[in-house]
Design a protein that fits this description.
Type Iii Antifreeze Protein Isoform Hplc 12, two-stranded antiparallel sheet, five-stranded antiparallel β-sheet, elongated, alpha+beta, 3 helices
Length: 223
Amino acid sequence: MTDLPTPTASRLRAPSWRDARLLVGVLLVLLSTVAGAVVVARADDRVPVYAAKEQVAPGQRLTEADLVRVDVLLGDGAAAYLPADRPVPVDSWSLRELRPGELIPVEAVGPAAEVEVQQVALLVDATSASALVAGSVVDVYVNRPKAGTTVGLPTYAGPERVLDAVSVVRVAGEDSVLGASAETRAVHVMVPREDVPSLVADVDLGARITLVPVPGGLPTATS
C-alpha cells in the first residue's frame, strides 16, 4: 500500500508593521479617538444664553418668565447674545420684535428710555379684529371723515395707510368697556413715538381705523 503524504503544518506568523491591514486598523482607531475628543471638547464650549419663550412685542418688558435658557455653541459670537448665567436686569425692555425660540441679541434689549414705541388702543371693526391675536403684525389704515358732512352720518375719505408693520400686543374681548360697541373691538398696538400724536388726532376726529395683517404677520398656532 502506498503511503499518503503527510501535510506539513504551517506556522502562523505575527502580523508585521508592514501589513497594510494592520496599519489601516491602527489609523481608524486613532481617528475615532481624536474625533471623540474633539466632540467632547466642542460640547464643553457651549454657553448659556436666553431665548424668547413666546412672541415678544417691541416695547414689552422682559422678565425671566418670558425667557428660556438654552446652551449653544456660539464661539466668539457668544458675546452678542443675552447671557443666561446671570439674572435678567430689572430695567430690561425689548427694542424690537422677538420670535418664539429666537436667541435674544444684546442689542435687542435696553432700558425703558431706549424704547421707541408706545402702546395705543384703537377701536376697529369687530370682524377684522377677530382674526388678530397678540403677536400679529399689521398695517394701520385710516378713513378720515370729510369736512362739512352731516353730524352722525359722516362720509369718509381714504383709506390712507399711516403705519407699516406695527405689532399687536392685545385684543380686547367682547366684554371690553373701552368705548366699544357690538361692531367694534379695542386692539392695542405698539406705535412709534413720533407717530402717536397724529394717530391720536385721527382717533379724536372720528376716523375709521382698519388693521390689515402684513404677509406672514399672523402667528402660527402652536399646540
